TrEMBL record:
Renumbered residue ranges of the record's region Disordered: 405-428
Keywords of the record: Amino-acid biosynthesis, Methionine biosynthesis, Pyridoxal phosphate, Transferase
Gene: metZ
Name of this chain's protein: O-succinylhomoserine sulfhydrylase
Reaction equations catalysed: O-succinyl-L-homoserine + hydrogen sulfide = L-homocysteine + succinate
Origin species: Muricoccus vinaceus
Protein's job: Catalyzes the formation of L-homocysteine from O-succinyl-L-homoserine (OSHS) and hydrogen sulfide.
Modified residues (N6-(pyridoxal phosphate)lysine): K212
Cofactor(s) needed by this chain: pyridoxal 5'-phosphate
Recorded superkingdom: Bacteria
Pathway annotation: Amino-acid biosynthesis; L-methionine biosynthesis via de novo pathway; L-homocysteine from O-succinyl-L-homoserine: step 1/1
């Protein structure tokens, strides 16, 4: 029997269960955890040949380890990418992909709607090194067009974005970016490789936080960068090898185990999220419900063209009930009995966060306003519980948020429902 998966065009579920494994001489069934910092050589000559590159042999786990390599090979096969490197966290992946490529004098164009730390890298870190950075509204092609009137070295964008679930038209932006000379980096955390394949729509590099859906059970941090063999070997690998954002082999193994069920977890979470979005859109305490496959989403057609399902996150605004939207949103969060308050996402457990006071506190009120995040905005990552239990928990929390209001204020607020369009329709 073969020790590795034969080279056939296997489907995603098969790649997730069996892809990437490289069995040792012990023929272990599950991937081995090679928890070792270094490797030994049989002779001085073998060590010399390894460093010359004429012999393939693991040297040091900062830049190569069999368990980490198994994860890289599984992710590359799933994404349809030539090569992959995994890192200690999603931010190590984003930071590595950018710093490996950029130099003083370069120009970076980014969509404004980025994960908080990605926003900090573009707005604060890169300018320190003499890199010019430009933010655009990712939904507005005219702003991208304007930004690419000057050459650019790199583009960073997220679609759907955190937390407002905005879409970027990938083929259109990639075409404009390439004409300006830029490498297009897509943070695909919210869509996962199962719902959206940026490399098939013009992206050059895809980055992930493996902490989210890949592990999916709240245990370890990890990240991944995927791209062409040439870019990964010549641009990314020297940076990773010499700066050391390396993942622990143990954490890589946990993520390998998590991936074996990604194709079962993500569609189930998407179906739950679509049902929750339909529920929230019909509630008077909720003034706006955002979900990419909801008919009321301004970019629903683009979402259905680029993604095979609407994703696992729903964002909604709790309406001001007369004492401020923040107070109303906090009452809802505090009344939840099942859903946890946590800033993680993509987990088996459903969790909510209030972006204005947590993940997006540091971007400041003006940038939050530009992003559309207000004091009533709540981001909900829908998990794998029975969706009826999640919906009942949300229902009782929305009810309680009104009842706990002082009597004089009770009837002052309550926005209008954003529409009761169905999100759970079939993919295009
Ligand atoms: C979580 C996240 C990251 C960062 O990943 P970490 O593993 O937490 O470092 C980057 N981008 C997006 C969209 C994320 O959700």
């Amino acid at each position: 029997m073969p020790r590795t998966l034969p080279d056939a065009p296997f489907r995603p579920a098969t790649l997730l269960v069996r892809g990437g494994q490289n069995r040792s001489s012990f023929d272990e069934m599950s991937e081995a955890v090679h928890l070792t910092s270094g490797f030994m050589y049989e002779s001085a000559e073998q060590a010399e040949d390894t460093f010359l590159g004429t012999v393939q042999h693991f040297q040091y786990s900062r830049f190569g380890n069999p368990t980490i390599e198994a994860l890289q090979n599984k992710l590359a096969a799933l994404e349809g990418a030539e090569a992959c490197r995994v890192t200690a966290s999603g931010m190590a992946a984003v930071h590595g992909a950018m710093l490996a490529h950029l130099k003083t004098g370069d120009r970076v164009v980014a969509s404004r709607a980025l994960f908080g730390s990605c926003h900090w890298i573009v707005s604060t870190l890169l300018p320190r090194y003499g890199i010019e950075t430009v933010f655009v509204d990712g939904t507005d092609l005219d702003q991208w067009r304007e930004a690419f009137r000057k050459p650019a070295a790199m583009v960073l964008l997220e679609t759907p974005s955190n937390p407002m679930l905005e879409l970027v038209d990938l083929p259109a932006v990639a075409e404009l970016a390439h004409a300006a000379g830029a490498v297009v980096v897509v943070d695909n955390v919210f869509a996962t490789p199962l719902l959206q394949k940026p490399l098939t729509m013009g992206a050059d590099v895809v980055v992930y936080s493996a902490t989210k859906h890949f592990d999916g059970q709240g245990r370890v941090l990890g990240g991944a960068v995927l791209g062409s063999r040439k870019w990964v070997d010549e641009v990314l690998q020297p940076f990773i090898r010499n700066t050391g954002p390396s993942i622990s082999p143990f954490n890589a193994w946990v993520i390998l185990k998590g991936l074996e069920t990604l194709h079962l977890r993500v569609p189930a979470m998407c179906a739950n999220a679509a049902a929750v979005a339909d529920f929230l859109a019909g509630r008077a305490e909720v003034s706006r419900t955002l979900y990419p496959f909801l008919a009321s989403h301004p970019q629903q057609a683009l979402a259905r063209a680029q993604m095979s399902a609407g994703g696992t996150l729903v964002t909604f605004d709790v309406a001001d009930q007369g004492d401020g939207a923040k107070a109303a949103a906090f009452r809802v969060l505090n009344a939840l009995k099942l859903v946890d308050i946590s800033n993680n996402l993509g987990d088996a457990r459903s969790m909510v966060t209030h972006p204005a006071t947590t993940t997006h506190m540091k971007v400041g009120p003006e940038e939050r306003a530009r992003l559309g995040i207000n004091d009533g905005t709540v981001r909900l990552s829908v998990g794998l519980e029975d969706v009826q239990d999640v919906i009942e928990d949300l229902a009782q929390a929305l009810d309680a948020s009104r009842e706990s209001l002082r009597p004089g204020l009770r009837d002052a607020g309550g926005g209008t429902a954003a529409g009761v369009s169905r999100a759970a329709g079939p993919a295009r």
